[in-house]
Structures are given as C-alpha cells and as structure tokens.
Specification:
The complex is a heterodimer of chains A (296) and B (216). Chain A is 35% helix and 24% strand. In chain A, helix 3 crosses helix 4, helix 3 packs parallel to helix 5 and helix 5 runs parallel beside helix 6. The two termini of chain A are 20 Å apart. Helix content of chain B is 81%, strand content 0%. In chain B, helix 3 packs across helix 5, helix 5 packs across helix 7 and helix 7 runs antiparallel to helix 9. Chain B starts with a helix and ends with a helix. The chains are: A alpha/beta (296), B mainly alpha (216).
Chain lengths: 296, 216
C-alpha cells in the first residue's frame, strides 16, 4: 500500500505518565482513517505526533516520504531538522478542536496568511482561491468577518478552508466537532464528508460514530495508549471483536443514538449544494469551473 | 498661592519641556527595542540567551534608577567613556526601561493562547514569521496597559536627570525658585505640566486599546 503516513512503535510520555505505549498505524493515499476511543486513551496525542506538535519519546514517524523522527539503536530519538519539519507541515493540514483561528485577522486573511508567507503564493491568487473555498463551504459572504463574529460551526469550516488553502496531502482532524453546539456539528461533518469523497487522505480523531461508520475506510480503536482493535469501519463498529471496544461502543451509542449526516442543521441543504462544487484544487484547464470533482 | 506667579512660571518651565520629552522619547525608544530583544531571549530555547535576559532584569530592576544615573554620569567617565549629561541620562533610563518593559512584553507574549502557536506551527510558518504576524500582534493587546504604566513612570522619573545637570523641566523650576524664593507656585505649575503629559499617554493607551481590540 502507498502509505502517506507511516507510524511504528510510537511512544509518548509526559513525565512518568506514558500516554502512548507503542502504536503502529499507516494511512494510505486517499484513505480515511477514524481514531476512536475513550477520553484519555491517547488518541489526540497520537494525532499530534504525526505533525510533531508533540515530540514522540519513542518510535518512528514518516509522513509523505519525510522521516520526522526515528529511534536510534541506543534508544535516543533523532528528529528531522527544523526546516524539514516545516516543509512536511506544509503538506499536513490540521484542524483543531478549538479552531485556533487568528482572532485579529479577517477570515480571508486567516486563509491566505500561510499560502502567501510559507508557500510564496502570489497574494491575488491566494485571495482568489480563498474566495473560492469560502464559496464552497457556504461562507462566501463572511470573507471580511472576524473569527469571533462567527458561530462555532462557521469557525470550524473556516479552519478547514485555512488548512485546505495549503493544498495538503493529508488532513488531520482533532475532535473538530467537540467544541461546537451539537446542532452545528452537522455542517462541519458535511464538509469533511465531501472532502473524503473527493479523495483527500484523512486521519480523524472523533466521537461521531455515525461519521466514522459513513465516511471512514478504516477505524482504529485506542485504549490506554495502544491500538486495541482496527479494521474496516463497518466491521469494527458493527461487530467489534475486543471486549473493550464493545464496552466503549455500547457506552457511546447508549448516550447518543446514531444520527445521520442529513441532520445538518437548517442550511444543510444549501451547504450541500455549495459543496458540490468541490473543495480540492483543480488544475486550471483540466476541468472548467463547472465540472465538479465527481470522483467518488 | 499667587496665581500670577504660577502663570508666569509656565513659559520658563516650558523651555525645559523639549528636553524632558526628548529624554523620555529616546529612553522609551531605545529601551523598548532592548526590551523586545530581551523578551525574545527570555523565551528562546538557547539557554545562554535566557540567562542573559534574566541577569539583565535582575540587575537593572534591582538597583535604584538614581544610582544607575549616577553611574552613567560619574562612573563611566572614569572608565574613559565620557557622555554628555543628556546622553548619560538617556543611557540610564534606557537600561531601566528595557528591564521593566521586557517583563511586560514577555508576559504579553506568554499570555497568547497556546493554540495560536500550534496553529502557526501546523501551517509550516517559521518562528520569526509567526511571532511577527500572529503572536506579537495579539500580545500587544495585553501589553498596552502595563506598558503605558511603565512609560508614565519613566516620564516622571526623567525629573531625576536634574541631579546630573540635564536642563529639563524640574531643573528649570529650581532656577525659578532660587531667583524669587517663591516655592509653591512654580512647583504647582511643574506638577500640572507633568500631569498634562501623562494624560496624553493615557489617551494614547485608550486609543491603542481600541485599535487592538478584537472584533466580536
């Protein structure tokens, strides 16, 4: 398999607290992998190790051909140099639980900052692309708004657009619906679903079991810093083999019965129409603006 | 109090105002540049930078400003470095300002949410870039009130330069009462002029707070 993310033996301790105890996983190009597990299981830490926001204390992380860290024979960790880490991050989009938009900048400025400063994209091109992305996520009218003027669902959609503007090879999602009101989660999930349909490689830490069931190709169940069970989403979620997975799923599904993505809030329908225009960058000339990426 | 004398004192004192303002402006400018460098050193991962910044803050916040001033004026010439009274004062005030404002800048930077640093890093921005564009602009909002307080203190402390013969407002005021033996009136006029100047700083603070407020 053409693995875009390849992680082996991943360990992470905070002081004497060992959060990850030797995790192996890989994400293939175009694959959507959901990471589920109880709170405190280490799933967020695992995700943050992929772009080295957390520095692993053991194991090897390879992303898009770059070895970000590796454990040497004597047990010491060797990290890629700053420049290589930065270069890799350009290809790894991340969306955070708490949005982390830049509150002192407009929505448009949030989106174009990194493409212009990091990738050296021409400012006018970056703006045009940002407007395009905002249109598709249904926020074309919010380009000049400031993040704190938006709802949680809108902020998170902007955060996704900000990451997409870098044209990443893989997207990391860290519980991106956990800090928005439940009725606004649907609009974020719709955007993510569309992204998956267009073939984006995605690693998604989530509590949304219905999203994992609908969208993910594969599910990893993490508990106490280990991958306890993994496999095709349908199998893991409907017929879990491990007792802890079963207990977790029972607890989660008892509390919140599976919802469908169709419950995407009032303007869900409108958003879906916008999304049909496609989120991923199309090579100019290859397909006109009207031709959508209908590659699902 | 004789208002006539108060009124006559103002133009005499005002002749020193430009010296007071230059002292203040130079010290604030040089001190702020130094403070920014010290704050960044304090937050660096290279330990000698951290040690230097901590040492600097310990030294120049720990010694009375008046003594710094005496050192710059009396001690440096003995080491072969002769400065005019004005520049000796600017030197002492700049060191004092750098030490105090470094703490303001450092705490402002540290108060910016960790998520802002993480988002910048995750987007592949260099540290220099995101400090300049993301972190410091947000930190400024937090820095403005304590920065202004220190600036007000600096402005008032420039009166100490009298003791090293810089002809600023306080020195000129003393000349008035050594001429006419009227004490209360010139001092009152002087106090009002300082108050007017610090009021301008407070207005500046209000304007800066408005400029940097977040749009919600």
């Amino acid at each position: 398999m053409d693995a875009l993310v390849n992680v082996t033996g991943l360990r992470k301790s905070f002081g004497s607290n060992e959060v990850l105890r030797g995790v192996d996983f890989a994400v293939g190009r175009g694959e959507v992998v959901a990471i589920i597990g109880p709170s405190g299981s280490g799933k967020t830490t695992m995700l943050r190790c992929v772009n080295l926001l957390e520095r692993p204390t053991g194991g090897r992380v390879e992303v898009d051909g770059h070895v970000l860290c590796e454990q040497l024979d004597d047990g010491k960790m060797q990290f890629a140099d700053k420049r290589e880490i930065r270069e890799t991050r350009e290809h790894v989009g991340m969306v955070f639980q708490r949005f982390n938009l830049f509150p002192h900048m407009t929505v448009l400025a949030n989106i174009i900052e990194a493409p212009v400063a990091v990738k050296g994209v021409n400012k006018d091109h970056a703006k045009a692309r940002a407007h395009e992305l905002l249109e598709v996520i249904g926020l074309g009218h919010k380009a000049d708004a400031y993040p704190l003027q938006l709802s949680g669902g809108q902020r998170q959609r902007v955060a996704i657009a900000r990451a997409l503007a870098m044209e990443p090879a893989v997207m990391l999602f860290d519980e991106v619906t956990s800090s928005v009101d439940p009725e606004l989660a649907g609009e974020i999930l719709l955007v993510m679903k569309r992204l998956a349909q267009e073939g984006m490689t995605m690693l998604v830490v989530t509590h949304e079991m219905s999203f994992a069931a609908d969208v993910a190709d594969r599910v990893l169940f993490i508990d106490h810093g280990l991958v306890v069970e993994q496999g095709p989403a349908a199998e893991v979620l409907s017929n879990p083999q491990n007792e802890r997975t079963r207990a977790f799923l029972r607890a989660v599904l008892d509390r919140a019965p599976m919802t469908t993505d169709e419950e995407a809030g009032e303007d869900g329908g409108a958003l879906e129409e916008h999304l049909a225009h496609g989120l991923l960058h199309q090579e100019p000339g290859e397909s006109g603006k009207g031709a959508e990426a209908e590659d699902e | 109090m004789d208002w006539q004398i108060v009124w006559e004192s103002v133009p005499l004192i005002w002749k020193g105002a430009s010296t007071t303002v230059s002292l203040f402006a130079w010290a604030l400018l040089i001190g702020t540049v130094g403070a920014l460098a010290l704050a960044l050193m304090r937050l660096a991962s290279f330990k000698p930078f951290v040690w230097f910044a901590v040492f600097f803050g310990w030294l120049f916040r720990g010694i009375p400003l008046l003594i710094l001033l005496f050192y710059a004026f009396f001690a440096l010439p003995e080491a072969g470095w002769v400065l005019s009274p004005f520049w000796a004062a600017v030197l002492a005030f700049s060191l004092w300002t750098a030490a105090y404002q470094a703490e303001v800048i450092r705490s402002g930077i540290s108060a910016v949410e960790p998520g802002q640093w993480e988002a910048s890093e995750a987007l592949g921005m260099s540290r220099l870039h995101y400090m300049r564009r993301i972190i410091i602009p947000q930190g400024i909002r937090i820095m403005v009130p304590p920065y202004t307080s220190n600036a007000m203190t600096l402005l008032k402390q420039t009166s100490l330069a009298t003791l090293v013969t810089v002809p600023e407002m306080t020195l000129l005021t003393q000349r008035i009462f050594s001429n006419n033996f009227k004490f209360i009136e010139p001092i009152f006029a002087l106090a009002m002029i300082y108050l007017a100047m610090t009021t301008l700083l407070l207005i500046g603070q209000a304007l800066a707070e408005r400029a940097f407020r977040l749009r919600v």
